[in-house]
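User: I'm putting together a small comparison set for a docking exercise, and I want a reference complex before I start. The sequence is below, and the ligand is magnesium ion. Could you produce the 3D structure with the ligand included, as structure tokens?
Assistant: Of course. I'll restate your input first, then give the structure tokens for the complex.
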Amino acid sequence: MRQAGRIVAIVLEVLTRQVRPGIKTKDLDIMAAREIERLGAKPSFKGYREFPANLCTSVNDEIVHGIPGERILDEGDIVSLDLGAIFMGFHGDAAVTVGVGKISSPARRLLEITEGALKASMAAARAEARLGDISSAIQNYAESRNYSVVREYSGHGIGRELHEEPQIPNFGLPGTGPVLKRGMTFALEPMVNAGDWHTRLGDDHWTVFTADGSLSAHFEHTIVITEAEPEVLTTV
Ligand code: MG
């Protein structure tokens, strides 16, 4: 899983460097496929429940599961890049939201808050803590700063399958849920909206939008539980 995670992180770094005004989301998907293959892995998302691409690209008010296509990224957009790869039977899964060229300060702040929520969730994720501690850390971090967390989509266990039990909601109560054990592997993935938390599904039956049209960001890491801070697997 360390190798799978490392591959995901390397590819996301390559893609992040390519994000600029004028690039098509489809071009990022093609690069993702090429880099994953070059590193000897396979994309986790392609064909998963018939998802048609290697990468999810979710722009502005799109939260998750955007399908790369002909859309051209504009200066000031934010784009979430969510990528999974399988290597020797194990998955890694990570996401990052990137500004396209120069972005507004509210957009910049949303990115900082969402990344901060991921860090807060990792600080709560250690052996003998409870699953609800992770969920509440995300919710508290975002809501105390007047942002909302998406409720219909969650983090998850990960390993031989991309999505394993348990689901890890981005909201919840501390001190509840299963006790975390050393060696458990999770994908933690706060999705934070600048407006309300409600979502709507797009006509393609994949892309998830904020119901109110507000901006949304998404940061994700695959981690392993230890006695101290978790080890991040999706890092280079
Ligand atoms: Mg995930």
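The helical segments are 2-18, 25-38, 105-124, 131-143. The longest helix spans residues 105-124.
User: Thanks, that's exactly what I needed.
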